[in-house]
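User: Design a sequence. Structure:
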């Protein structure tokens, strides 16, 4: 039986991927931070799901989880690792507390680093396993190549993740372990659907109060028009099983518009359009 480790399966993309892969015959090891989520998913997915209780920033807990998975697999190869767990920190960069930036990078980048180090041997990287080498899927974002106002910490973490993924893919060439990036646009997940609930009142005394209100309205709209998480679950399953996967998959609600915006518009023109949309320019 094929097996996969997915981080952050309590909601959103991670949960959708867990459900899709379980339905396709994978045994899913899914990380959660709360026992209540572990119990719920174990009840709903049955014997095809094993919860792993850890925070991706806790190196000791991550390595303990890797040993737990290895004890189940024996000498078999882990088929896939999906680094999905992440958060989005919003705020103007000139006023953002440094603790918020560190938290963003610790979860979205250092967490991926720690989880990958712990589970890569089970995928066949530097360790003899029975079965073909596994694959690593890192969930990035279109924000990994485009930086938007007030999402600087998030974009920085995803830009870093893209560079990390490219370096790692080339370092793992001797072992046949592939590294694939999934870069979605807006998705109907808690990160977007809770846009109106984000507390940005700490920045009311800055020049960015009104533009930040527009950002919250945009995030709420994106929650409605964004991709259903099932689309991402299907893409993750495809990238794990297709014979020759692409190194990077971009998936957005309007692919043509995204491609034309990123590829054809000069950067200064795009700066102006975004600035006008958020009220940063008059």
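Assistant: Done.
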């Amino acid at each position: 039986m094929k097996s996969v480790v997915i981080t952050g399966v309590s909601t959103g993309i991670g949960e959708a991927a867990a459900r899709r892969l379980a339905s396709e015959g994978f045994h899913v090891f899914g990380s959660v931070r709360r026992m209540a989520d572990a119990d719920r998913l174990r009840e709903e997915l049955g014997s095809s799901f094993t919860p792993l209780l850890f925070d991706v920033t806790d190196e000791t807990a991550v390595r303990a989880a890797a040993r737990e998975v290895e004890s189940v697999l024996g000498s078999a190869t882990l088929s896939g690792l999906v680094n999905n767990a992440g958060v989005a920190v919003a705020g103007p960069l000139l006023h953002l507390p440094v603790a918020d930036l560190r938290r963003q990078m610790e979860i979205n980048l250092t967490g991926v680093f720690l989880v990958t180090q712990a589970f890569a041997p089970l995928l066949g990287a530097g360790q003899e396993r029975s079965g073909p080498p596994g694959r690593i899927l890192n969930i990035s974002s279109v924000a990994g190549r485009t930086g938007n106002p007030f999402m600087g910490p998030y974009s920085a973490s995803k830009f870093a993740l893209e560079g990390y993924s490219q370096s790692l893919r080339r370092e793992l060439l001797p072992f046949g372990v592939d590294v694939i990036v999934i870069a979605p646009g807006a998705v109907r997940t808690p990160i977007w659907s809770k846009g109106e609930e984000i507390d940005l009142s700490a920045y009311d005394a800055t020049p960015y109060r009104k533009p930040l209100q527009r950002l919250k309205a945009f995030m709420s709209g994106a929650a409605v028009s964004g991709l259903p998480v099932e689309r991402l679950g299907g893409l993750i399953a495809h990238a794990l099983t297709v014979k020759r996967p692409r190194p990077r998959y971009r998936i957005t609600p309007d692919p043509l518009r995204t491609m034309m915006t990123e590829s054809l518009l000069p950067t200064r023109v795009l700066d102006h359009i975004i600035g006008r949309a958020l009220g940063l320019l008059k």
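The two ends are 59 Å apart (CA to CA). The beta strands are 3-6, 27-32, 49-53, 80-83, 135-139, 178-184, 248-251.
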